[in-house]
Amino acid sequence: MSEKQVLAVDIGGTKLAAALVGPDGGIAAHERIPTPNEPGTDAEQLWRALEGLLDKVAAAGGDPPLAGVGVGCGGPMTWPAAEVSPLNIPAWRDFPLRGRLRARYPGLPVRVHNDAICVAVGEHWLGAGRGRGNVLGMVVSTGVGGGLILGGHLVNGASGNAGHIGHVIVEPGGTPCECGGRGCLEAVARGPGLVAWAREQGWDPGERGATGVELTADARRGDPVAGAAMRRAGRAIGIALASATHLCDLEVAAIGGGLSQAGELLFDPLEEAFRAHARMLFARRLRIVPAVLGQTAGLVGAAALIHSQDRYWSAG
After folding, report:
1. 228 in the Ramachandran plot: left (φ > 0), alpha (ψ -120 to 50) or beta?
2. How far is residue 65's CA from residue 68's CA, in Å, rounded to a whole number?
3. In this structure, how many other beta carbons lie within 10 angstroms of the beta carbon of residue 139?
C-alpha cells in the first residue's frame, strides 16, 4: 500500500466533491461545489469546473505526491474505459472521463467506477462492512444502486454492473421504472418515486415542497400516508435483500443514501419484510445495518480503488 495520498472524486448531479485520502482512509483536504447542470451547460464547461475543483483540493493539501486518482461517477458508463453518460448530468454523453484524467495526470493510475459501487467499497473498506467478506452496499436516494463484495473482493460482473440491486423486481407488473421495466426496486423505493406515490394517495406538503425529507418528517409526525410510503419502501428493500442474500450468501447489507436517514420508519418494515421472505437459515443470518461513512463514503471508496487495488480493482 502506498503512503501517498489518492485524489478521490465523487461526481453527481447536484455536487462535485474531491478529497485527498490517505492509505488509512483519512481525509486531508475536502472540497465540493455545485455541479454546473443548468440548461445549456456543455461538456467542456463541466470539465473545466471539475479541473478547478481538483486544483483547489490539491492546493489545500499542499500539492502532495499522489498515488493515483480514484473516481465515482453516476452511470451508465462503459467500464473500465469510463466513457460516462450520467443520467442526471445531460452535458456528458459518452464523455471520456478516464481518458481526460489520464492525460491530466500522466503516469498515475486513474480508476473510475459507478458512484454507488464506490459507496459500497467504502463501507466494506472502512465502514459498516469492515472485516466481513460478503457484503452488499446500497444507496437509496434519488435512485437505488449498489455494489457487491464476495470473498473479500469487489465483484464487477461482465460490464462492471454487478450488485445493481435497484433493478431487482420486487413488484411484478407494478410501478413503471425509467429503465423500461415495471416493479423494479428503484421504481418503488427511490425518493422521488415515494413522493409521487404519496401525493397520489393524498399527501399534501403544502408550501414546504414535495421532497423525501418532508415526507420523512411527516411520517415522524404520524401522517398516515407518509408513514405508508416509508413502509412501502422498507418492504420493497426487504424483499430485494431476501433475494440477494439467497443468491449470494451475504453477511452484511449496509444501506446508505438520503432515505436511510429515516431510521426505524424505514428499517422496521424492511426487517419485517426480510424476515418474511428469507426462509433459508443461512439467509436469515444477514445483518442489515445503516451505512456509517455518510457523505464521504463515495470518496473513501474511490480512494480504495487505488489504495486497496488488490481487493477492489481487477481491470487494466
Report:
1. alpha
2. 9
3. 31
Bond before 23 cis per omega within 30 degrees: no
Residue 11 has φ and ψ, to the nearest 5°, of -110, 115
**109, 226 contact by CB (below 8 A):** no
Query: Cα dist. 125→20, 99, 205 in Å?
Result: 17, 27, 39
DSSP state for residue 182 in the 8-state scheme: B
For 46, 162, 262, 272, 313, the CA distances from 276, given in Å and listed in that order, are 47, 26, 22, 6, 36
Q: In what order do the strands lie in the sheet with 144-150?
A: 153-155, 144-150, 135-140, 252-256, 287-290
Question: What SS3 class is residue 176?
Answer: strand
Tell me if 265 sits within 8 A of 224, measured CB to CB. Answer: no
| 76-89 tens-digit pLDDT | 999 999 999 998 89
Instruction: Summarize pLDDT for 185-194 with one digit per residue, the tens.
Output: 999 999 999 9
Residue 18: all three cell numbers together: 474531491
Question: What is the C-alpha separation between 164 and 171, in angstroms, rounded?
Answer: 17
**296, 265 Cβ separation under 8 angstroms:** no
242: its cell numbers: 431476501
Q: Distance between CA atoms of 229 and 262, rounded to whole angstroms?
A: 11
pLDDT per residue as tens digits for the range 93-110: 999 999 999 999 999 999
